[in-house]
Amino acid sequence: MDKNKDSKKDENKIIESIETLGVSNIPTSKGDIHFTSIIGEIEGHNISPPQKKSTKYEHIIPQLISVQRNEDIKGLLVILNTLGGDVEAGLAISEMIKSIDKPTVSLVLGGSHSIGIPLATATDYSFITPTATMTLHPIRMTGLVIGVPQTFRYLQKMQERISNFILRSTDISLENLQKLMYDTDEIANDVGTILVGEEAVNYGLINQVGGLNAAIKKLESLINEN
Q1: What is the tens place of the pLDDT at every residue in 162-216?
Q2: 70 phi and psi angles, rounded to 5 deg
Q3: Measuring CA to CA, which residue among 42, 36, 44 is closest to residue 55?
Q4: Strand ranges in 129-197 using DSSP code E only, listed in sequence order
Q5: Is 113 known to be catalytic?
Q6: 54 catalytic residue (yes or no)
Q7: Which of 94, 106, 112, 137 is catalytic?
Q8: By the 8 A CB rule, do 201 and 207 touch?
C-alpha cells in the first residue's frame, strides 16, 4: 500500500513538472555552483500582468542570501534574458549580487536591457553571447506624472543611481555612457542605444563574448583562485 502511495506521489511530481516546465524530470545541480536565472520583466512592488514572464525580486533575494550563507556554495552564475522592469527591484538585486564575497559570473543570453544592465554588470566577470543585446536609455516613468520641478529632480536622482552603479561595476567611461543613453539616432521614437554582443565588450560594459561553457569555466577558475 505504501509503495502505491509513493508511486502515486512520483506520478504527480512528473505531471507537475510537465505542466510547469514541459519536462518529465528536472536536472539538479549537485556541485558547488549556484545558478540563478533572471528572465522576462523584473517585477517590483506591483505584480506584472499574468501574460508576461517575470522575475520576482522576493524570489531572487532569498537565493542570494543562501549563496552568501551556505558554505557548500563556492560561486554564483547569473543567467540573464530580461527586458528590464522595476528600477528599485533591479538595483536592489544588483547591489546584493555586488556585495556577495564569493566569485560571481553573469551571462547575457538574448538580452539584458534597461535595468538589466546593472544586473549583468554586478558580477565579478561578465559574458555576453554574440547575438545578445543590451539597450541603454534614460529612466522612464509610467502612470501619473506631476509636472513640477520635484518630479524632474526625482528622475534625475534615479538616473544618477543607475549610472553610478554602472560606472563602478564596469570599465565604461561617463562620457560614453551618457552618449549611448541620450543618442537620438539609434532607436525609432525613443532615446538610447542598442549594443549587440561584442559592441558591449568594446564599450567596456561587458568583459567578454562567450557562452555557457566559457562562463562556467571562468567561474570555476575564479573559485580555484579564491
Answers
A1: 899 999 999 999 999 999 988 887 776 778 889 999 999 999 999 999 999 999 9
A2: -80, 115
A3: 42
A4: 133-136, 193-196
A5: no
A6: no
A7: 137
A8: yes
